[in-house]
Amino acid sequence: MTTPSIAVKQTAAVQYLLRIGDTALILGQRLGEWCGHAPVLEEDIALTNVALDLIGQSRMLLTRAGQLDGMALDEDQLAFLRDERDYRNVTMAELPNGALRGQRPGDFAFTTLRNAMLATWFRLLWEKLRDSSDAELAAIAGKAVKEARYHQQHAADWVVRLGDGTDESAHRMRAALAELWRYVPELFDSDTIDDAATAAGLGPRWSDLREPWLVEMHALLAEARLDVPADSPFRSTAKQGVHTEHMGYILAELQVLQRAYPGGVW
């Protein structure tokens, strides 16, 4: 017996929260793959703690999303019982830790650069969400922004160390940057969901984060002696529910217990 999938309402407020919560959830799942595999013990602990912070943020956001519009769904149902097309995380979060080369646990340069990119994005978003018209979302943001500041600084330190380090570390950082930069536009694409969230005071359009994010990332990459790649016409679409082939493998691990043992609790 397996647990059937749940249906999720497509209202703007629910979808807006799912985009943020799912991004935190899937990135946390990816970072959890480093547990026991990081290059040094301190990073093993640090990456695991970052993953736990992200999953904690996701829990709060999914709980709030499940309360909206009378859905009456809890965090576990939203995390474990949706079909792939109902997840709204950005594509960058679901990429394997070793870019598309499929290493497990992955490439540390790729992981740290992605962490820096997404932590900067999260910090800017949380800062805006502290003024949300939704009191619970504003409270979540007030806590999460403190964690995002640490995540950003920790990842940025490694980006500089590796980018301005040895020939090998610099080569890996350049390769990671070339791959990841293709997925940046999705972080700032705005649509009718953003418009509705902004009109209701729920949160900002993601496009409003683009310029401050670019300023901070350009400064970081300059310090790391890394050149900003040229823009690409490629557009990723996971936050619309159209994911890469990697998402199914993530969900297979994430959902296996709840699917196999319906309603199971610890």
Give an overview of the whole structure.
The protein is mainly α and 266 residues long. Helix content is 60%, strand content 0%. α1 crosses α8, α5 crosses α7 and α5 packs antiparallel against α9.
What structural class do you assign from the helix and strand content?
mainly alpha
Helix content: 55-70%
Instruction: Give the rounded overall mean pLDDT.
Output: 93
Count of extended strands? 0
How many helices? 10
Given the C-alpha coordinates, what overall shape results?
globular
Biggest sheet statistics: none
Order of helices and strands: HHHHHHHHHH
Radius of gyration: 18 Å
- Model regions low in confidence, pLDDT < 50 over at least 5 residues: none
Amount of beta strand: under 5%
Distance between the termini: 19 Å
